[in-house]
Amino acid sequence: MPAKIGVIYYSTYGHVGQLAEAVQAGLEKTGAEVKMFQIQETLSEEVLGKMYAGGSLKPKYPIITPNDLKELDGFLFGFPTRYGRAPAQVSAFFDQTGGLWASGALIGKFAGVFTSTGGQHGGQETTAYTTIPFFVHHGISFVPLGYANAGLSVLDRVEGGAPWGAATIAGGDGSRQPTETELSICTYQGEEFGKHVGTFVRGKELA
Ligand SMILES: Cc1cc2nc3c(=O)[nH]c(=O)nc-3n(C[C@H](O)[C@H](O)[C@H](O)COP(=O)(O)O)c2cc1C
C-alpha cells in the first residue's frame, strides 16, 4: 500500500500555499497517496482586511480536522512564522487534538515542517524547532531536511531554507515570491519525506 501523506498548511498571503504545492510534487514522485489540506483561519474578516489579507477565508483545499490525521501515515506542515514560531491558527488546530493524544492515535506517525518568514533572519529555524513539542507529545517523529540539498548551501544570493525544513522569504511587504531554488528544496523535502515514510509503511507490512 502506498504511504498516505498529508500536506497541511496555513498561509495568510499565499507564499506557503506555493511551497505546499511544490512539496506535493515531490511527494507524488514517490508514489505516495497525497492529500492537501488547509488549516482553519481563526482571524475575523475585519482583522484580515486590516492586514491586507483574506485569501485564507477562501481555502483551495479541504480544512483539516483532527480525525483526518488518524488516516494518514505522515504530515508535512507548512505555515508562515509569527514571532519566530507557529501562528495561532496552528496552535488552535493542535488544541483540538486532545482526544487523539488521549488515545495515542498518532503514535508512530511522522511529521516535517516548511515555512515562510518576512526577513532573512526572521526565524525559519526557530519556527520549526518550536513546533516539535506538538509532535513529541503526540508520539510523532520529526523528520528534518538535513543539508544534502545543495540549495541549502548557496552563499552568493539570498535563499530561504534550513536543515529544519524548506522555506521562503516573503519580504517585509510580502512582495518577494518563492525562488526556483526555494521551490526545488520544497520538492526535495517532499520527495525525501515520501521515501522515508514509504519505507516505514512497507516495512510495517512485512513485519
Ligand atoms: C503577526 C505577524 C508576526 C510576524 N512575525 C514574523 C517574524 O517573527 N519573523 C519574520 O521574518 N516575519 C514575520 N512575519 C511575516 C510573515 O512571516 C510573512 O507575512 C509570511 O512569511 C508570508 O507567508 P504567507 O504568504 O504564506 O502568509 C510576521 C507577520 C505577522 C502578521
Automatic annotation (TrEMBL):
GO terms for cellular component: membrane. GO terms for molecular function: FMN binding; NAD(P)H dehydrogenase (quinone) activity. Residues 5-193 form the Flavodoxin-like domain. Belongs to the WrbA family. This is Flavodoxin-like domain-containing protein.
